[in-house]
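TEACHING EXERCISE
Course module: macromolecular assemblies
Task: Read the component lines below, then compare them to the predicted structure of the full complex.
Student: A.B.
Group: 4
Components provided:
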Amino acid sequence: MDLLGVLPLDELSHGLANLSMFPYFDMAHYIISVMALREQPGALEVSRVSPLACWFSSMLFCFGGAVLSAVMLAEPVVAPLSNSTSVLLASVVWYLVFYCPMDLVYCCAALLPLRLVLSGMKEVTRTWKVLGGVTQAHGKYKDSLLVMIAIGWAKGAGGGLISNFEQLVRGVWKPETNELLKMSYPTKITLIGAVLFALQQTHYLPVQKHHLMLIYTVFTVVNKSRMMLTGSSASPFAAVESAIYKTLFTGCSPYAALTGEVNKAFIDNGTGSTPTSTSATKESDKNGTAGNHTPVKGQSGSHKAKEESENTEETSCKKTD
Amino acid sequence: MDLLGVLPLDELSHGLANLSMFPYFDMAHYIISVMALREQPGALEVSRVSPLACWFSSMLFCFGGAVLSAVMLAEPVVAPLSNSTSVLLASVVWYLVFYCPMDLVYCCAALLPLRLVLSGMKEVTRTWKVLGGVTQAHGKYKDSLLVMIAIGWAKGAGGGLISNFEQLVRGVWKPETNELLKMSYPTKITLIGAVLFALQQTHYLPVQKHHLMLIYTVFTVVNKSRMMLTGSSASPFAAVESAIYKTLFTGCSPYAALTGEVNKAFIDNGTGSTPTSTSATKESDKNGTAGNHTPVKGQSGSHKAKEESENTEETSCKKTD
Amino acid sequence: MDLLGVLPLDELSHGLANLSMFPYFDMAHYIISVMALREQPGALEVSRVSPLACWFSSMLFCFGGAVLSAVMLAEPVVAPLSNSTSVLLASVVWYLVFYCPMDLVYCCAALLPLRLVLSGMKEVTRTWKVLGGVTQAHGKYKDSLLVMIAIGWAKGAGGGLISNFEQLVRGVWKPETNELLKMSYPTKITLIGAVLFALQQTHYLPVQKHHLMLIYTVFTVVNKSRMMLTGSSASPFAAVESAIYKTLFTGCSPYAALTGEVNKAFIDNGTGSTPTSTSATKESDKNGTAGNHTPVKGQSGSHKAKEESENTEETSCKKTD
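Instructor-supplied answer key:
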């Protein structure tokens, strides 16, 4: 009946579905998350000036998904703190990555082979988080596909979605960019996962759960590894995105000229280059006030930095010597 | 006993109270809300660069009241998303207003007669939302007038009250202005409605609910139509506000000179002109740092733009050709 | 068995533990809180331009702890508003401090002896708030020390912790500073109190609750009075903090030079002087964009102003003549 059922992959998918995330996969997630924080511009200075703000930021990187989904479902946001073992583990990782003598832990973890393995393990936790979010939402809102997608997405990509407020903890404020205006690769892949698992949960997608888990996990791990090894941040969905965008969101509007231009920028974004929407820039010049940020302008820079931070290898360790 | 009871208006008020908001009035609310978003500076650029951010912003314009009151009452903020029909309707409206071929929908809806009807229908939904909020708060906090007013206000004027965070979704950040610092007309009228319905609910106001609904609805619709037809944004409460302000909030303080000046600015605000509180401007110049915004300065500009956006007619359509 | 038990202090501690905060101590808290708001730069202009924004800001100063802990525990944030008597009392205080004819109330309360008494009484309420938060968290999360500390801290120092968002109400936005990046004295002493009461609650600290209440209250009141009388903002924990910092958060890292410099700045901070982390400043210069704030820079200014605002005496009243 099911193609995957007759293959030995069925056993593999069952094995994967019964895998426990704690402690190894969770730890890999914490290490990669805290390293991503450390590679943010200004994060090291914050870690020296205020270890508490740095710790709080790290916890938002590690448990951002749990916090965001708690806010969305009106559950206590302190709940993640109540899981003492996880918080302790994440705190130890935070301490070692930021304050280890000789910077040993960070330099080791930043070596390409180890980072590759840890990133792969972190991608595995994504499947569990998205599925957990979708299941939780399904328990509360039986028939609402949209809520399931929203909670699954929030749980899997929470750290990215709340990045504006995480930055605020560190005294950084970049209102001109957010994950909705320009999605990074992890946010995109999580959204796709949330849609797939929500469709599976409501039986619109005729696949068994453990098969979908296997397929999705393999795809994310392979894709992440490919991106790290080739150093490219080209999205595998660029072509599909561009096609959808051209079909749905252009049309013959009085903004044809503008649309064409921004559309080009949009497609460029998909492949990682810098968008320069001149019309938006003009707009912001017209405003004149430094505080009133208009979108688009400058948003790609920080995102690029973020994405690169996950793709940089041992060079980033040498850089700091 | 009741003056309204002996008139044929009684039947009318009963008829109004039994009116269903879904689907026609709700749709008018969505159309006018999404059009107001589209007329925000920079919104069109966002709609081309990131349809998702644009959709999310539109949902905040349409369901802002439900979201804000959910936050205030610690109920799930995703609850509005679980009403699939409403979200679908709002999404269709969003798509048609922003991406319709030839921009047909926006240009039609922006014609004065149609816009007048739609705006009137949107004002009707305000009564229902305010009353819904007051009733909901009354169910939870029996004797707290203040909570009833707060929830009624939040439900009726949520989109405006959370505008700072709605703008953040689009990459815009204007900390120097918010609806509390300088209330727009819709926020004011909603606050008055919330006070009236809360007083009625606690029997301090000896009026029957359906009579109050009729009076409030007629007042908001007539007033909105008058403002759109005359193109004036003069508040009908300017005189009362000014009197209350002079009585309560000036007094013989050491700031007499300052107060007089700002008071003048305040009254000017009431009638729609531009306030220039020189003392506040001096303050902000003294600070010097671009990031530390002091209030007052520049706040009127954006509000004026917002209010005008609701008063502009078909010209705004031509402008874009 | 207990050293304090044999002293007449035992009776005193029982008496203190049975003390009612309402109305006198609560009122002292409201007066000092609203005066602290009034002494913020730009607050007086806001009070003239928008009494509503000013009132809302005052309520956040008075009930910030209750609001923040409600958010963290997913309880309704409007709950503090439902306590009509407290809100009425705080509103009367707000009105008198900002709008009293001849500015009588503010000038009287700003006289050193009266301000000293009121500040002392406000410090007493801190004990009750921290203990209330710890007890509430203990009721929900039995064995989680971290949650108890978080809620106790939030309840006791909420106004400070949410200051970024309180400022936003007044149209001020200072993302480059917050209470986590550079803790003020009240926030620090509240955190210590939250840790002590959480340890007592879980029986790790072998002290009886009323004894701890007495010791903590006496310490905060005496220390606050000393700081106000000497006009010094030197933290009594500077030495301990510096020792902990040197032991845990430096280590032999590749950032030795940087660390040494920032470490120096950190210790200077502890004694109230101005930190100038050149590396962080360079970073912000490199960014160039006015909207992208990097931390550290300029953060001490506002905090100093805040701390001084509590230490200024009748001079601040004369200044305004």
